[in-house]
Design goal:
The chain is built from 2 helices and 17 strands. By secondary structure, it is mostly beta strands. The chain has a single domain, classed as Jelly Rolls (Sandwich), CATH 2.60.120.10. The longest helix is centred in the last third of the chain and has 5 residues. 31% of the residues are buried.
């Protein structure tokens, strides 16, 4: 049956602007596109769709803001188009110490499971749009359901100005720069990427 309830259509779309992304960029003063990525929120019954612009901001690949889920919520990403990286990190009680950090390379047809307790962000490392679907529920009665849904906590990422590593372009591919706001990373899987500083 085709749905005919259009009550929440106006709440589906959200864009993450350059101004907002400055909070988590390696070089917050670098110029960038007006919008880094676009989200179409599906509520609690449909998947969400996210589309990233290709390109670099101050040498850093375009990425999502990054967040942790509130409670015991897991999530799966399905890669619809393009090439990217999924970064995951689990924190200790000390907000400057990462218990576990990992990077997964993904391309069209792949999926990635995100367990409860892991922060995550996605990065477009390709020359085209990067497009994903995910099953994270969004309640349309949240104050800002499309932009900052209530199931996600963005504040720890904002305070640390991003995740434990920034992903930059070097010699035509991705490389890593350590975010010095973090004091330590206890366990890491960097998917073979070089740490350049």
């Amino acid at each position: 049956m085709i749905p005919t309830d259009f009550t929440f259509v106006g709440k589906h779309y959200a864009a993450r602007t350059h101004e907002k992304m400055r909070e988590v960029l390696m070089n917050p003063d670098a110029p960038g596109p007006e919008v880094h990525y676009y989200m179409i929120r599906g509520g609690e019954t449909q998947r969400n769709i996210t589309v990233w612009e290709p390109g670099l901001v101050g040498g850093e690949y375009i990425k999502t803001y990054g967040h942790y889920h509130v409670g015991e919520l897991d999530e799966t990403y399905w890669i619809i188009f393009g090439e990217g990286l999924i970064l995951k990190q689990k924190m200790t009680n000390d907000p400057t110490v990462v218990e576990e950090f990992s990077i997964t390379r993904v391309t069209q047809g792949d999926s990635v499971f995100l367990a409860p307790g892991y922060g995550h962000l996605a990065i477009n490392i390709g020359s085209t749009f990067f497009v994903t679907a995910d099953d994270s529920p969004v309640r349309f009665d949240d104050p800002d359901p499309a932009g900052l849904p209530g199931h996600a906590d963005y504040e720890p990422v904002r305070k640390m100005r991003g995740f434990a590593y920034y992903v930059i372009e070097q010699n035509g591919g991705p490389a890593l720069v350590r975010n010095t706001n973090y004091a330590a990373i206890r366990k890491e899987d960097l998917a073979g990427l070089l740490v350049v500083k």
